[in-house]
Amino acid sequence: MKKILIISAHPDDEVLGAGGTILKLANDGHEIHWLIVTNMLESMGFEERLIAKRQAEIDEAANLFAFKSVTKLDYPSASLSEADIPSLISKIGDCIKKHQIQTVFTVNRSDAHSDHRVLASAVFSATKTFRYPTVKEVLMYECQSETDFIPVPQDQPFVPNYYVDITPYLDKKIEAAKIYASEFGEHPFPRSLRGIEALAVVRGAAAGVEYAEAFQIVKWIDS
């Protein structure tokens, strides 16, 4: 059994990037923890009604995915900056140490959303081997409307090199996406249920299966 940490900049990242993989890992008996970095806050102008709705969505998603724990860091959404990286490294590290995490899934370093880029940098620093030697695997996942929405430097594209067959889990991944109904729209909206299936078809074709999710390996230590 592995101890796995799924890191989301925002709730719904986990569904888009790794929903099927999370379901497969849970079914295989692994212990999965969820770290959500940002949140809706009244200080940012969000109404209490919307904040309560988002917390209910998080609870529903956590239940569907059977996460062992959920940690919310409560940084203001859409406001992460390089100044936050030192505190992020510390808090991510605390979570890794507390649960003795071995595998980390995180957002992609070159996504359109600045929260994703800042978070990825913090994760890379927090998972250095000399800091937390329990971590043996670090992988980035892709998020529709973020990973595919910006020209990236040639040295930092998302290059899939690890695929997970999610064929038995696609329907439940789509069910999980429906939890965040306000974040999704009809095709060709960047985040749509049809888009989720379409990307799973493309990644599946690359992997020789019906439906797949794709990841980029940052670190993989076989010991």
Structure write-up:
The chain is of the alpha/beta class. It has one domain (3-220): LmbE-like (Rossmann fold, 3-Layer(aba) Sandwich). The chain contains six helices and seven strands. It has helices spanning 13-27, 48-65, 85-99, 114-126, 170-177, 193-207, and strands at residues 3-8, 31-39, 69-76, 103-107, 137-141, 162-165, 212-220. Strands 3-2-1-4-5-7-6 form a seven-stranded mixed β-sheet, sandwiched between helices. Strand 4 (103-107), helix 4 and strand 5 (137-141) form a beta-alpha-beta unit. Helix 3 (85-99) packs across helix 4. The radius of gyration is 16 Å and the shape is globular. The two termini are 15 Å apart. The mean pLDDT is 94.
Please give a quick description of this structure:
The protein has six helices and seven strands, in the order βαβαβαβαββααβ.
Mind sketching the topology for me?
Blueprint: E1 3-8, H1 13-27, E2 31-39, H2 48-65, E3 69-76, H3 85-99, E4 103-107, H4 114-126, E5 137-141, E6 162-165, H5 170-177, H6 193-207, E7 212-220
Parallel strand pairs: 1-2, 1-4, 2-3, 4-5
Antiparallel strand pairs: 5-7, 6-7
